[in-house]
Amino acid sequence: MYENLENEEIYRIPPELKKDAHEGYKKRKRFVGMCAQAGVQILAGTDGPGLGTLLPGFGLHHELELLVEAGLTTLQAIQAATLLAARALNQEKEIGSVETGKFADLLILDANPFEKISNSRQIHLVLKDGRIFDPTKMKVSR
In 3-state terms, what secondary structure has residue 131? Predict the structure, then answer.
């Protein structure tokens, strides 16, 4: 899925900046991990290059993987996209966790993300607004 990103104009890095860009990326990833270890609450978000061209959800799955690579536990990464994000928006009474009375869109997975965070991509069913969606029957257009 990400193997051809360097061919996209928005992701191209001039050759003279590639080394610095890669080093900066590694430093930022270490910094995020250090912040999490120090107790800073990390939030997941889907902003990034290609805003408007990224399909919703795919960027978030990748971000969860990057957060775990940075040193967050799987639980911390999932909470960064759910409970802590809701708290930051001052909406934790409505969203962010599965509880009676809250709005809940759910992913039913075929694999355990606590065994491997990329298992969050193994989506069996989606429950959104009380409707069930089978991802194998959904068309994705760009």
Answer: strand
Q: What is the pTM of this model?
A: 0.80
Residues 7, 98: Cα–Cα separation, whole Å: 40
HSE-CB of 139 using CA atoms within 13 angstroms: 2
Which residue range forms the structural domain that includes residue 127? 5-137
73 is a domain residue: yes
Q: What is the pLDDT of residues 93-138, one digit of tens each?
A: 999 999 999 988 899 999 999 999 999 999 999 988 888 988 888 7
Residue 56 lies inside a defined structural domain of this protein: yes
Number of domains in the chain: 1
Would residue 57 count as lying in a domain? yes
pLDDT in tens, 11-45: 678 888 889 888 998 999 999 999 999 999 999 98
How far does CA 29 lie from the centroid of its chain? Answer: 14
pLDDT at site 67: 95
Taking each helix axis from N to C end, the angle separating 18-37 and 58-70, rounded to the nearest 10 degrees, works out to 70
> Is position 142 within any domain?
no
Helix axes 74-81, 58-70, angle to 10 degrees: 140
